[in-house]
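RESIDUES AND SHAPES:
===
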Amino acid sequence: QVQLVESGGGLVQPGGSLTLSCAASGFTFSSSTMSWYRRAPGKERERVAQISSGGDSTNYADSVKGRFTISRDNAKSTVYLQMNSLKPEDTAVYYCKKYAYSGWGQGTQVTVSS
């Protein structure tokens, strides 16, 4: 059974940084493309970053490009999202997702506010 457990969210001031983690289990993590999504209040869920199974290819939403970095550790079955220069509009619940799997984890709340 696929399990995705996000952690690392919290309250941070504008301009600050956070690193999110997603611990995965129940599938062959090293063979799976992984993504981070977010859903802000009143908005649709959007994909913010994606990383290939080997970690050699990444892509980002324009809104986070240059500020967020996705990475993975296949030995730990964990995907990360390093978020720098955070803005109030980054406030959202953040989720990781396995490619071609419809389920979601519980998410982790990120709030950017002074």
User: Anything to note?
Assistant: The chain is about 0% helix and 50% strand. The longest strand covers residues 18-25. The radius of gyration is 13 Å. The CA atoms of residues 3 and 82 lie 21 Å apart.
